[in-house]
């Protein structure tokens, strides 16, 4: 049994990084992309190795790398990132890169997994049900893939007049409704890009 003073993994602070460290220009420089490793995510039960494996060095300092779900019934992985531009109408796409461990992934075919995001504390959540986990859970490989995928449809959040006064994007991956034990998910990173 793991003895942990705080059972939940708390994200490293993205607010302490400047926008140029977080947001990198991609392609011809017209689109900026932010990639967050699990180090920058809040993971419910993430500090308890009975539920999640998160890479750490010998002194317990967290390393870059993926987070591996051992087993949980309550999946909640969230984060917040400052946006480079919050003009009304500006759009951002949110995706997680994940993989499923072929021999260990269970319950994904019958659990309602959702990805949600909003701009600003008072913003309205946009959400997508992630069906692609259901389709991939029967595979026999661990190839990383993005969710939502083309079959799920993109999750795009738009800066509105009510959210333009706050430059923070809140997002999360959830499955808290079924009560089923879920296993075998690896979270590689979150990708947020301008549209």
Please describe what this structure looks like.
With 195 residues, this protein is mainly beta. The chain has one domain: Jelly Rolls (Sandwich). Helix content is 5%, strand content 35%. The chain is built from 2 helices and 13 strands; from the N terminus they run αβββββββββαββββ. The chain has helices at 19-22, 132-136; strands spanning 23-26, 31-36, 42-43, 52-53, 67-69, 75-82, 91-100, 114-119, 126-129, 145-147, 156-158, 168-175, 185-194. Strands 1, 2, 4, 5, 7, 10, 11 and 13 form an 8-stranded antiparallel beta sheet that branches. Strands 3-6-12-8-9 form a 5-stranded antiparallel beta sheet, with no helix packed on it. A hairpin with a 6-residue loop joins strand 8 (114-119) and strand 9 (126-129). The longest helix is centred in the last third of the chain and has 5 residues, at 132-136. It is globular, with a radius of gyration of 17 Å. It starts with 18 loop residues before the first helix and ends with a strand. The mean pLDDT is 88.
């Amino acid at each position: 049994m793991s003895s942990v003073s705080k059972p939940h993994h708390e994200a490293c602070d993205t607010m302490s990084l400047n926008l140029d460290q977080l947001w990198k220009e991609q392609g011809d420089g017209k689109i900026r992309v932010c990639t967050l490793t699990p180090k920058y995510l809040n993971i419910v039960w993430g500090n308890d190795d009975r539920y999640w494996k998160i890479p750490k060095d010998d002194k317990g300092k967290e390393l870059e790398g993926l987070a591996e779900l051992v087993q949980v019934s309550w999946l909640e992985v969230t984060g917040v990132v400052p946006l480079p531009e919050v003009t009304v109408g500006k759009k951002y796409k949110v995706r997680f890169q994940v993989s499923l461990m072929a021999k260990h992934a269970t319950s994904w075919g019958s659990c309602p997994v959702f990805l949600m995001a909003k701009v600003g504390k008072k913003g309205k959540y946009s959400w997508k049900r992630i069906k692609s986990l259901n389709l991939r859970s029967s595979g026999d490989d661990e190839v990383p893939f993005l969710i939502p995928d083309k079959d799920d449809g993109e999750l795009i959040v738009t800066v509105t007049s009510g959210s333009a006064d706050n430059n923070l994007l809140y997002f999360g991956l959830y499955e808290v409704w079924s009560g089923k034990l879920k296993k075998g998910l690896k979270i590689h990173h979150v990708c947020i890009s301008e549209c």
